[in-house]
Amino acid sequence: MSTPASAVAQIGKSVFIKGELSGSEDLYVDGQVEGSIALKGNSLTVGPNGQVKASVDAKGVVVQGKLEGNIQASDRVDLRKSAIVTGDITAQRISIEEGAFLKGKVDIHRTDQK
Amino acid sequence: MSSVSQTFMKLFRGSSGPDTIPAQGSQKLTRRSSGLGELTRTWESAENLCILDLGSTSPTNIRHFTEHGHRIYSEDLLTASTDPELLTKDELGVAVLDSRKFLADNLVYPAAHFDFILCWNLPDYLDESLVKPVVGRLWSVLKPGGMLLAFFHTRDAGPDSPCHRFHIVGADTLEMQKIVLRREARRGPTGAVHTAISDGFQLQRVFNNRHIENLFRDFASIKFFLARDNVREVLVVR
């Protein structure tokens, strides 16, 4: 199980946030977020305890917990084995571990498809 | 064959999230699939197709289709059908699943959206009350000329035929992996921990050819492939 690096902004597992979240640094969510998350150029990690109900727009997205909402990643999406994702995924690359659950669409947009 | 209430007793699950996992360390079997072979010939020559996979989330299948530039939708209907909130009673007081609620929460897509639907063995394991409504919805979300692949056990397969998930590993080759239900531990009112263990989904019925033709009667054509492992593959075209 990966742990967030010290330079990463963190939302701990007892924290609940409702609204629009945006930033220009990597974010680790192990708590609850409802609304939208915009981290253009940066990455979002949903930790094993994380419960996110939000549309996500980021460079990279790693999901270990639960995410309900569409994911738009300019680079890659990683669904780890404990991930439960309900929503559509658009990314350049995707990696899904055995055991991950996905209900939704996977659409890969390669750079040469512009 | 198990009743709805028996199935729910066995499932003993929460209201959300998947409860199925492939059997830990389970042996993966491979099988040739004539139906898949025929589909492959079609989708390899096409671009930007829209495909619906109704089995358990398969990283292999997602990779297979995205590498070919297609869009894939993954929706595990069998797991979704175990939602305890679906349980209701019909006018005779018999426990059934609420197909309206099921279709309000699942298979919600625009009409004529998909080029292909991979049903796998879903109809054999899906609760009776959901089979016809689900096939009706599949007809509406499939494009005219679109194709659906489903597998049906023959009577010789026996009532204990395990439910598998299917991974596409070749043009006409599938890898099959047995599905078991997740063990779930809960603390009861006395503080004792109870663990529900199940052997997985049970075969609900055996369709004969006539039943299958009736089930897909709204489709334009139907083609049967008899396999050696007591399974009939069915390819239908809307």
In brief:
The complex is a heterodimer of chains A (114) and B (238). Helices cover 0% and strands 62% of the residues of chain A.
Break the fold down into its secondary structure elements and pairings.
The complex is a heterodimer of chains A (114) and B (238).
Chain A: E1 9-11, E2 16-22, E3 27-29, E4 32-46, E5 51-63, E6 66-68, E7 71-79, E8 84-86, E9 89-91, E10 93-96, E11 101-108
Parallel strand pairs in A: 1-3, 2-4, 3-4, 4-5, 5-6, 5-7, 6-8, 7-9, 7-10, 8-11, 9-11
Chain B: H1 4-11, E1 20-22, E2 29-32, H2 34-43, E3 50-53, H3 59-67, E4 71-74, H4 77-80, E5 87-89, E6 95-97, H5 99-105, E7 114-120, H6 122-125, H7 128-141, E8 142-153, E9 164-170, E10 173-181, E11 184-187, E12 193-196, H8 209-215, E13 221-226, E14 231-237
Parallel strand pairs in B: 3-4, 3-7, 7-8
Antiparallel strand pairs in B: 1-10, 2-10, 5-6, 8-14, 9-10, 11-12, 13-14
Verbal overview:
The complex is a heterodimer of chains A (114) and B (238). Chain A is mainly beta and 114 residues long. Chain A contains no helices and 11 strands. The model of chain A has no long low-confidence stretch (mean pLDDT 91). Chain B has one domain (4-237): Rossmann fold (3-Layer(aba) Sandwich). Chain B contains 8 helices and 14 strands. Chain B has helices spanning 4-11, 34-43, 59-67, 77-80, 99-105, 122-125, 128-141, 209-215, and strands at 20-22, 29-32, 50-53, 71-74, 87-89, 95-97, 114-120, 142-153, 164-170, 173-181, 184-187, 193-196, 221-226, 231-237. In chain B, a hairpin with a 5-residue loop joins β5 (87-89) and β6. Mean pLDDT of chain B is 84; it is low at 5-19. The chains are: A mainly beta (114), B alpha+beta (238). Chains A and B meet through β10 and β11 of A and α3 and β4 of B.
